[in-house]
Design brief:
The chain is of the alpha+beta class. Among the domains are: 25-139, Immunoglobulin-like; 146-228, Immunoglobulins (Immunoglobulin-like, Sandwich), CATH 2.60.40. The chain contains two helices and 19 strands. A six-stranded mixed β-sheet has the order 2-11-10-5-6-7, with no helix packed on it. The longest helix is centred in the C-terminal third of the chain and has 69 residues, at 233-301. The chain binds 2-acetamido-2-deoxy-beta-D-glucopyranose (3 copies). Residues 202, 204 line the site of one 2-acetamido-2-deoxy-beta-D-glucopyranose (NAG).
């Protein structure tokens, strides 16, 4: 009884020792990998095993950054067969199967980012541990930001400059600067992560100039510009007054000439009528003369 018990214990110990020295081990050579969107990336995963590789099984999973709670099976190697996730077909492959579990992802997308797990099994060997993890970050340069302004460009008004960038990983930093006539950094209000605005109250002619919004991350910087020209109070009102004065003057001149014309017409009309009546009188007189003339002539003839 005791002897058999001892033997069992002994064999158990041997077994554990064997497991400890010969267990399959997975090691990740790096824990984070960065790639620029569109480039290819190699995700390394090494394993050490002493058993034949005929029953080797490798599974790569991804917990995407956008939805970590629903992981996908990126690629599986099982008994010499390879199965890829539909979303990665043609873009993912093993680089050194069966000696290494490294994979390559081509034409990387933002959706490829997340935590990758490499699980290796090689029965009957036990795995200790059989799992390795790494974080893949997909970097994206800032897109061209959009600059906009709204408000009152007249002196004394207030103007808001706003700038928004559509994408960029890591999140681009947004800055507003006035760059002409002299360079000044402006205080910015962030409206969310990807847009920032600057408010300028009581604008004056000094507010005029060239403004730049820049969106930058470690991959680069993109700029957009706004050219503000504030309608100067003095210039506008004086030219306005001048225009008003000129207009009034022209109108008065026209009215005056119209008045003169009316008066002249009225007077010439009266003169005419007077002249006409005079003529009528004269004619009447003449008629009378003529009327009388025959009688006079008659008289003279007589
Ligand atoms: C990735 O692209 C390289 C070069 O274009 C090609 O040799 C390789 O087979 C591609 N890998 C996959 C998994 O499509
Ligand atoms: C606006 O600016 C002008 C000149 O820059 C100044 O005289 C005036 O007091 C300012 N008004 C306000 C409300 O700040
Ligand atoms: C900005 O506007 C002013 C006046 O409208 C003009 O003279 C200047 O050339 C413009 N500058 C740029 C960079 O567009």
């Amino acid at each position: 009884m005791v002897a058999t018990g001892r033997r069992a214990l002994w064999s158990l110990c041997v077994c554990f020792a064997a497991l400890h020295t010969n267990a399959l081990r997975v090691t990740m050579r790096v824990s984070t990998v960065e790639v620029v969107r569109g480039d290819f990336v190699i995700l390394p995963c090494s394993f050490y095993t002493s058993s034949p590789l005929s029953r080797l099984n490798i599974i790569w999973t991804l917990a995407p950054l956008s939805s970590p709670e629903s992981p996908i099976q990126v690629i599986v190697y099982d008994h010499g067969q390879i199965i890829e996730d539909p979303s990665l077909i043609g873009r993912v492959g093993f680089t050194g199967i069966p000696w290494s579990a490294d994979i390559m992802v081509n034409d990387t997308r933002v959706s490829d980012a997340g935590i990758y797990r490499c699980m290796v099994n090689n029965p009957p060997e036990m795995a200790d541990p059989g799992i390795g993890e790494l974080l893949l970050t997909v970097l994206v340069a800032p897109s061209l930001p959009a600059c906009q302004w709204e408000g009152d460009m007249d002196a004394g008004g207030s103007v808001t400059l706003s700038c928004s960038v559509a994408e960029g990983i890591p999140t681009p930093e947004i800055h507003w600067d006035k760059i002409k006539p002299e360079e000044i950094s402006l205080p910015i209000n962030m409206d969310g992560e990807l847009s920032g605005s600057v408010q300028i109250a009581n604008v004056s002619s000094q507010t005029s100039g060239l403004y730049r919004c820049s969106a930058s991350n470690l991959l680069g910087t993109e700029n957009c510009y706004i050219n503000l020209s504030i309608h100067s109070e003095v210039g506008e009102s004086s030219s306005g007054i001048l225009q008003g004065v000129l207009l009034t003057l022209a109108m008065s001149l026209m009215l005056l000439s119209l008045l003169v014309l009316v008066i002249w017409l009225h007077q010439t009309g009266q003169d005419g009528r007077r002249r006409v009546s005079k003529m009528e009188e004269e004619e009447e007189e003449g008629y009378n003369e003529i009327q009388y003339t025959p009688s006079l002539m008659k008289r003279s003839f007589v």
